[in-house]
Amino acid sequence: MECKVIRTDKAPGAIGPYSQGIAVSPWLFVSGQLGMKPETGDLAGQDIASQARQALSNLQQILLAAGCDLNHVVSVDVFLTDMGKFTEFNEIYQEYFSEHRPARAVVEVSALPKGACVEIKCIASCA
């Protein structure tokens, strides 16, 4: 089993001792993505909409760096600091996953790094 580290400067670098993604054929495991701008490492905004779009874009860029795309995603885990934003998040999520619908879990957490309000990770099958 060979593990390949996936890295792109089109998504924020890891803010801890982990990789943006790890590929173990045929699987790609993408680490949790906050709504941080890759250029600055700052949150895209303080609202769920800007952070969710940026987090999904970051996720998408890591998938692309591994030779995959959103259609390869089989499972998504979402962490929200306010479940009251669930409906708003779903509307944004559907912009990225409109027809392809991976398995998904959404849970509320008490806090996320950098004061973010959303974090998203996924598993993709890229064979």
TrEMBL record:
One of its GO terms (cellular component) is cytosol. InterPro entries: RidA (IPR006056), RidA_CS (IPR019897), RutC-like_sf (IPR035959), YjgF/YER057c/UK114 (IPR006175). GO terms for molecular function: deaminase activity. It comes from the Bacteria. SUPFAM superfamilies: YjgF-like. PROSITE patterns: UPF0076. Belongs to the RutC family. NCBIfam families: Rid family detoxifying hydrolase. This is Reactive intermediate/imine deaminase. It comes from Desulfonema magnum.
